[in-house]
Amino acid sequence: MKTRLRFFTFAAPSRFYRLAGVLVPWLYGVAAIFAAAGLYVGFFVAPTDATQGEAYRIIFVHVPAAWMSMVLYMAMAAWAAVGWAFNARLASMLARAIAPTGAAFTFLALWTGAFWGKPTWGTWWVWDARLTSELILFFLYLGYLALVEAIDDTHRADQAGALLAVIGAVNVPIIYFSVRWWNTLHQGASISMTAAPKMANTMLTSMLLMTISFWAYAFAVTFARTRAIVLERERQAEWVHGVVRSLESNKA
Hints:
Layout: H1 13-45, H2 59-86, H3 89-121, H4 129-150, H5 154-168, H6 171-181, H7 201-233, H8 238-251
Helix pairs in contact: 1-7, 2-3, 2-5, 2-7, 3-4, 3-7, 4-5, 4-6
């Protein structure tokens, strides 16, 4: 009799643990391959920008990192809300696992943005609406991590973190629409779902390759971190003892 996969098939931490263990190495491989291709196209194939010169090439890292910083926050808030509303253990674990990766991408976006801003604007930082709201996003990630780690009771920590994550989600549309709502130094979107791209095809190709790489890396590191959280939280479960015994026997 065949087993049918259903929506909640991998909602059980034990099943997700096994699935993630299979996927993580492949995701790291995909991330490495697409990053190598994206960086090669961006730095060696794409033409020099007529206005910004060679400095513009930082966008091939900066823009995908900025996208990921917002997408991962919304994913973190969504999983945290699901865990809070339905008392779903794995959802809360995923929210915790996403947060450090989201914070890392946000820092990368801010850091590369500063390197782009120095030759373009003549300064490392301006209190621009887009930059300021992105900085607030970074603090929201750090606040979530600090809050859930400060509370000893896991259930209460998940609930408190979910509340902060959901409230902080209002900042994401502010980041996205800031260049439309306010007169900012930050340039508008070069890629839109409703208009043709404002860049050469090679530039667009590099950016999309890097975006796929960042997505694969985000999945890989989040799944790996979730596996560690599952083992920590489910350490009393019999299947975890089996995993531990298997690891110990492999080391021996």
